[in-house]
Write a structure and sequence with these properties.
single chain, alpha+beta, Aminopeptidase, 13 helices, 26% helix, globular
Length: 457
């Protein structure tokens, strides 16, 4: 998952102070229509709402959580300083939990602000899943210029939040008591994770989201505490999560790289991470790809392939200091192709053996206020394993397959062995960093190429 600065900003209650003075004849001059500022915002045309939200976002940048280690060292983390995580600046050499599991676990849920209540979301219910999609699509994440916003589908959320052995009580929501509107969410999914030589049962924390109108009210820390309590009740005390901001304390940090597949569309929507030194004709020529793949035996994965992929994946992931430990049911869940969610391809040799695997998942976004384009499709690299094909050649074919399926851009982090092909295949590094964190576990720093874990969010 990705913790974000808007969700974890310390301080500020966002309340508006009313003037104590009454203007003479106020009632006679009072305009008709909503007077509540949020209701007034909702009553405006969507384009005007986006302009206002963009201005608010720009004003809020000065109080956001730090994005660099230098900024982080000057910041006071009122919430994270109370949590079992390494402190910024600590020279970590030890391995193991920060606090033990012998302490008592709170029986009652944590107290929410007045007017709100907890809800455990049943994601098998289509109506509830639709509510969650609405909350995330309107409030989870958008680019700094407020023109592109993530667009979650129920099929994608089923994949991300409901792997084997998932626990419904770990789908933690907050509702308004009066109208039952969903205004907050955070989830955990079970995972076996290898940290250096230690295999540990823990959870992945994902999709922390608080409604925009409730930012600055410290609801996100309460959501994290409540999810921690629910996970502890199941006997688990460690978690892994990611964030694009610096919290105490990153285990590793990586960079996002992207490779345009549809340069014309990306330039028309002013995609924020494009090279700025190319005109359209040069971009089209620079990013041109072959029409067909070159690797013999390359085909989509089937369920029958899973038993043969598992040893390939296990051997590959053992090279890294942070990686998942997957069972066959988990591998089938994460890799078996699903339309508009996950694509996986294998290379089958003449003798029937599988030598290579490449998989990428679908991240869709809405384009706001554009006269032609309404959405973008990004293919994000999950795993690539190459034992019989040159890695760069296999990834080049993955780009061709993604383009043929209608993706506009291909993205990857420089984790695992990815750095070996990124520049060769004309990926460009962006300004976005992603930081990895462990909750209640300490171990030394890892470089990006020592990380074998990708957490879709």
């Amino acid at each position: 998952m990705s913790f974000r600065d808007e969700d974890l900003t310390d301080g500020g209650n966002g309340s508006l102070k009313k003037s104590k003075k009454k203007l003479k004849g106020e009632s006679a001059w009072r305009p008709e229509g909503p007077r509540d500022p949020f209701a007034l915002l909702d009553s405006l045309p969507e384009k005007k709402q986006q302009e206002i939200q963009r201005a608010l976002h720009l004003f809020s940048l000065g109080t956001s959580l730090p994005k660099t280690l230098r900024e982080a060292k000057k910041h006071t983390y009122r919430f994270w300083d109370t949590q079992p995580v390494p402190k910024l600046g600590d020279n970590v050499t030890a391995h193991g939990p920060i606090v033990g599991s012998e302490g008592s676990i709170r029986d009652e849920p944590y107290t929410l602000p007045p007017g709100f209540s907890w809800d455990t979301l049943d994601l098998t219910n289509p109506c509830i899943m639709k509510e969650l999609c609405s909350l995330l699509n309107e409030n989870y994440m958008e680019d700094d210029d407020n023109t592109i916003r993530l667009d979650f589908s129920s099929e994608y959320l089923q994949w991300v939040l409901q792997p084997p052995d998932c626990q419904s009580q770990w789908h933690c929501g907050v509702r308004v008591q009066t109208n039952k509107k969903l205004v907050g969410f955070v989830a955990a999914v079970p995972a076996d994770v290898r940290v250096y030589e230690t295999e540990k049962q823990m959870v992945h924390v994902r999709l922390l989201c608080v409604h925009k109108k409730l930012r600055q009210k410290r609801m996100a820390p309460v959501l994290i505490r409540e999810l921690t309590r629910r996970v502890n009740l199941r006997g688990l005390y460690q978690a892994v999560y990611t964030a694009d901001i610096v919290l105490p304390t990153p285990l590793s940090s990586c960079r996002l790289w992207h490779r345009p597949l549809n340069p014309r569309k990306l330039m028309e929507v002013n995609y924020p991470r494009l090279r700025q030194n190319m005109n359209l004709q040069r971009a089209l020529k620079f990013n041109r790809l072959p029409e067909v793949t070159n690797t013999k035996g390359l085909r989509p994965m089937t369920k029958e392939d899973a038993p043969r992929i598992l040893p390939l994946l296990q051997e590959h992931l053992c090279k890294f200091k942070l990686s998942p430990v997957l069972s066959q049911p988990q591998l089938e869940h994460w890799l078996l192709p699903r339309e508009n969610v996950i694509d996986t391809y294998v290379v089958e040799g003449d003798d029937g053996s599988l030598t290579d695997v490449v998989s990428f998942y679908t991240v869709t976004s809405r384009v706001l206020n554009h006269p032609v384009h309404t959405g973008l499709r990004a293919a994000h690299l999950l795993y690539v394993i190459s034992t019989g094909t040159e890695l760069t050649d296999l990834m080049g074919d993955a780009l061709i397959l993604a383009k043929s399926k209608g993706f506009d851009i291909f993205t990857a982090f420089d984790v695992m062995d990815n750095a070996s092909f990124l520049e060769k295949l004309k990926f460009a590094v962006s300004d976005k960093s992603l930081h990895y964190y462990l909750y209640n576990w300490t171990c030394p720093w890892m470089s990006p190429d020592e990380v074998g874990l990708v957490l879709p969010s």
